[in-house]
Predict the 3D structure of the following.
Amino acid sequence: MSAPKKLYIKTYGCQMNVYDSERMAETLGGKGYEEVKSPDEADMILLNTCHIREKAAEKIYSELGRYKGLKAANPDLKIGVAGCVAQAEGEEIMKRQPMVDLVVGPQSYHRLPAMEEAVSKGQKALDTDFPEEDKFEAMKSRPKAKRGPTAFLTVQEGCDKFCAFCVVPYTRGAEVSRPADRIMTEARNLVEVGVAEITLLGQNVNAYNGHENGLAGMIRDLAKIDGLERIRFTTSHPNDMDDALIAAHGDCEKLMPYLHLPVQSGSDRILKAMNRKHTAEEYLRLIERIRAVRPDLHLSGDFIVGFPGETDQDFEDTLAITREAAYGTAFSFKYSPRPGTPAAEKTALMVDPDVASERLARLQQQIVQQQRDLQDAMVGRDVHVLFEKEGRLPGQMVGKSEYLHAVHVDGPLELRGKIAKVRIVSSSSNSLAGQLIAT
Ligand code: SAH
Ligand code: SF4
Ligand code: F3S
């Protein structure tokens, strides 16, 4: 047998790309590739890219530039670009960087083995179609090797919401849900190889309709799998938080009390211009309803500052909603005009970049403070931690609480993959320290 070829994958962007990279590595495994941790030893380099903001997209070209030397030293090295930049820029990439051999969009990953064959014969391969078939079904199934206690599982892809700022509907296509039985099978297989927590993924995961009772129905079926202890899902849109999903937060024990529910802005004017189709008040009422069934819910969100036309008052409204919604975690970004999106055409309304930077800094400062206060309030409380790996110090183990806080304790390696009760004793900038109470 010939020695395995070496594949290096670098992943940018969201969790869905992390999941896709795993699946691509598995698929290319069938073509004799094994994954390596450094581009220097690779026979194939695959960049799984993100197009969400300009900086993310531009990073790809500087990364490709770094591989020039490697390609010169090893002419057999193949370089591929996958993900959302591949979808958005297609042939442009090969024009800008002729050393790229392969460009594959997110809906065509099942065609990678054939594309690999073409590039190994010295041809170029490009596929940015939106084919009919379910790519995950057509891809090699996940191998039976033992794996870590947490896993991602994509249940839904694409987005029909067309927020005025966002490229996702163009790079990932229309909303498509995977059938419930395939998700059940994949989840059972994951549990068999050691997974205790599954995060269901979708660009708009709560629009999932592959189960007759939607995402809530899917979660309730998954909760029946023995050995699957925890279920999470991300990312949700406020308008798709239906009653059934809210109810599941109240009575489905395996569904963790953490919800990423981006609002983007606290100003109704800006929400309207963003095409979010709800008001700030409606969002806050929704949070209230979820907290009524799950009072300890840890809420997380995303914000964009400097959206075209955003005034000081609009920004104050955003600061206000961040406080009112009491986020445990929030991510904030400076608006980045994306080619082909309606907001990018509003050139006359662009916010001065210095003003936008200043707003971002203020928002982030407030969020960090809020985050820190909520985290500090965990001290003295008991949480359940699913342990994932060894900590930085000898004898330490690290895992995640039900609220997704990183928690470390002094404890044995055997804790890995187990859930234990932990009393929180102290809080530092981005983690909590605790003491084991019981397993
Ligand atoms: N489907 C998810 C978002 C996916 S993109 C949702 O609707 O919430 C992740 C985040 O990136 C978004 O929530 C938004 O805050 C940010 N984002 C998207 N497009 C952006 C742009 N053009 N400029 C700045 N931030 C953007
Ligand atoms: Fe983008 Fe909006 Fe769709 Fe989220 S809901 S992926 S922000 S278009
Ligand atoms: Fe980025 Fe595509 Fe995800 S643009 S955020 S990798 S869906």
